[in-house]
Specification:
With about 220 residues, the chain is an alpha/beta fold. It contains five helices and eleven strands. The strands form two sheets. A nine-stranded mixed β-sheet has the order 2-1-3-4-11-10-9-6-7, with helices on both faces. A two-stranded antiparallel ribbon has the order 5-8. Strand 1, helix 1 and strand 2 form a beta-alpha-beta unit.
């Protein structure tokens, strides 16, 4: 499979994603934000980090980059797109995903391991996981508090577009297990066609047993399946 990882000034997880993809034999390309041509790709990844230093608003400047015009076109044509952390923020800012990512409820940057529960696996991103499976992943963000209006929330719930929710180690989904105040403990969402996924936790940081754990690896395996 062919993949492309978009790189912005301030990206700091682009190489982590590349390592995870190349570990599974993806033929990966690193695409600088000023490029105007996107290689043929089975998967496009918008990685985490702090594009443009989070100036103005997280992801707002990156969403206006040259290459994002091509990413938007590819997404609308059905290409698989994965936005992680700052990548999730960028996908919302450019309109490929709906909603908003607000300041964390505690108004502090959070960097720690958390748990999420699989809510949906009938899609190309999570088909290697089981429903209600609990994963240990890592978060590192200041604006991860997902919010949307009631109409969009109903659309997400009715159409199985919320694949993961924050939980505790026992799988309980509640305010105590919610690290950032995200609406209904939502940790990631799909667009209506389920070809675009935005998620705040970092699966690429949990793709090697020696460095951390491998709870994120099945996501990349799912994409190959």
């Amino acid at each position: 499979m062919k993949s492309s990882v978009i790189v912005f000034p301030g990206s700091n997880c682009d190489r982590d994603v590349a390592v995870a993809l190349e570990k599974l034999q993806f033929k990966n390309s690193m695409i600088w934000h000023k490029e105007t041509v996107l290689p043929e790709s089975d998967l496009i990844v918008v990685p985490g980090g702090f594009s443009y230093g989070d100036y103005l608003r997280s992801g707002a400047i990156a969403a206006k980059s040259n290459i994002l015009n091509e990413v938007i076109k590819a997404g609308k044509k059905g290409s698989l797109i994965l936005g992680i952390c700052n990548g999730f923020q960028i996908l919302i800012e450019c309109g490929l995903l709906k909603g908003a990512l607000l300041r964390n409820s505690g108004l502090k940057f959070i960097s720690r391991d958390i748990f999420v529960k699989i809510q949906s696996n009938k899609n190309k991103f999570f088909n290697k996981y089981k429903i209600n499976e609990i994963l240990k992943l890592n978060i590192a963000h200041n604006e991860g508090n997902f919010f949307t209006n009631n109409e969009h929330l109903k659309e997400l719930e009715d159409n199985d577009l919320i694949p993961i929710k924050y939980c505790d180690g026992d799988g309980k989904v509640n305010s105590v297990s919610n690290p950032n105040g995200s609406l209904n403990n939502i940790a990631g969402i799909f667009n209506k066609n389920k070809n675009i996924l935005g998620m705040m936790p970092h699966p690429e940081r949990m793709a090697d047993k020696i460095c951390s754990d491998e709870d994120g690896l099945p996501l990349f395996l799912s994409l190959m399946n």
